[in-house]
Amino acid sequence: TQDDAMRRMRKVAQGYPQSFEWLCKDHKDRLFWVEINLKLAIIGNEGRLLASFRDVTDRKLSEEALRDSQERLKTVADFTFDWEYWTGPDGRYIYVSPSCDRITGHEMDEFFKNPSLLREITHPDDLGAVEHHLDEHGKEGPGSAEIDFRIIRPDGEVRWIAHVCQGVYGADGKWLGRRASNRDVTDRKPAEDVLGDSEERYRMLVETMAEGLALGDQDYNFAYVNGPFCRMLGYTREEMLGRALMDFVHPDYKHIMEVQQAGRRAGEEGSYEFAWLAKDGHTIWTIVSPKGIFDPDGTFRGSLGVITDISDRKRAAQELAESEEKYRLLFATESDAILLAEADTHIIIDAN
Which CDD domains does the UniProt entry name for this protein (predicted)? Predict the structure, then answer.
């Protein structure tokens, strides 16, 4: 206000320099911020008021945006459904989300006052694993870590917690502690145990089947290969996962693979004979029975294939063909006359 301005100028006249920010309006009624510095200067034995002005609108807008951002982040953190916390390098809590009360039955202040509270509420059967996790991952280091464990609430109720944590670092790279997210998974834990048993049974079935099984993603890179298929081609699972199917195709069959891949994207199915190139360089003959995988909206997500090794059958057929060719050659070049007749009817069926 004008009164503020006059008060500051009187201060300057008394020998006290003034610095302040003022919201101003230009000739188009647009608002902008100005930093004003006032001081007294003696010029020609007379006191003069020196004033400097600097437009600080951008800085003020940035500060306001930062305050808004901080408020939004705090709102997001405080209203997360999961229980979030941040511990400093000394192991003490820097931040604890209000959800801790709903999940653990303990309020935020209890964690701030007692850094060991998490250990104290952990189920005795899980305490060893939790202490190992906290000791191992409570120090500086990259990456994240997970653990599931049980806690006991003050009312005696046992709850399962899915915990994941990772290091927190400042802009300068300085380690600032660990951030953790804790989700109450009590309701889904029994279903997970049943699902885990079911998945283990299916895994055993897939890994012990005689045929190879492979899953390709939408770009036809191997997302999964079972043991029999790995042994068929002579590679380890690690050598195959993530690599393109084309890397393992026999050179003479790359075009066929391109045609088949286009067919899967179009929803076509049907078994076909195919040749792969094993790690040691020999050809593996197979019958591939594929099926495309699509989202409910029809988006192609990959292809699943069952691969049956027919190399022995192909070699036997080739040996038979070679044997017949030798027979034909001997038959055609024999100097004596040779007749072939049916045993029952004595009808001649071939002659040289």
Answer: PAS
